[in-house]
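Bug report (template v2)

What were you trying to do?
Predict the complex of my protein with 6-phosphogluconic acid.

What happened?
Run completed; filing so the output is reviewed.

Input:
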Amino acid sequence: MAAERSHEPATAATHSQPRHDLHVHANHDVWTWAVAVAVAAELRRELTTQSRVRLLLSGGITPAPVYRALSKAPLDWDRVNVGLVDERWLQPQDLDSNAHLVRTNLLQHQAAAAHFEPMTRAGRSIEEVIAGANAFAKVQACVAVLGMGEDGHIASLFPGMGDLERVLASRNDYVAVDATGCPGARQWPRRISLTPRGMARIPARLLLIQGARKRDVLMQALADGNPARWPVLTALDSIHGTPLQVHWCA
Ligand SMILES: O=C(O)[C@H](O)[C@@H](O)[C@H](O)[C@H](O)COP(=O)(O)O
């Protein structure tokens, strides 16, 4: 079933190109497979011209079915590096880590051949983890799967975070963040996150959201236009001029 697709201006500012495309899917299953097919198509296209490609994945509940569907895609997975958009300050084997989510949902079936780049490792300080993440990021990712919280956060960029200004202005791809006091960060305030600069370098950025509440939050953010209040807006920026692909179902 074809998704309803619309171009919408992102903010009150004038832009020569649409900054996001909204794909409205009929139901959860259609949403899941449409997103998995879209990610696989980006990887497949990139694999025709590159010897290796990188895919970045988010945590959260929303993308897990997509990762399971994507794991069955017939691709040259042994030429795909899988990294993380963000990570909680947990060891990769921790059940609440984003690494665990990716391992258990994506790295199976065909995708078992992919090369995974977990961020954290036993005995590594957070500074070493950030240095490692920035070293991985020297190889440009071609696709990022992003999620959004009901507070308008994206990756681990939370509204109201103490050092959000510094993070939004960072010239690095990854930074350590302290989201103490931000309810959206739940019990994991210490995190590693892709920065707006890191996101803007990725040509294909897919934002996965479901439900009326998240749609309304996104619309409110777009109408307001302030990325410090709504960090999700930072995903609209692209050095390639490519619009954010928003995939939504009720
Ligand atoms: O580690 C994390 O928490 C994430 O990467 C985060 O940015 C996530 O994408 C959103 O919080 C949406 O999460 P849900 O899909 O669970 O709503």
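What did the reviewer find?
Residues 58-62, 85-86, 88, 98, 147-149, 153-155 surround 6-phosphogluconic acid (CB under 6 Å). The CA atoms of residues 148 and 154 lie 5 Å apart.
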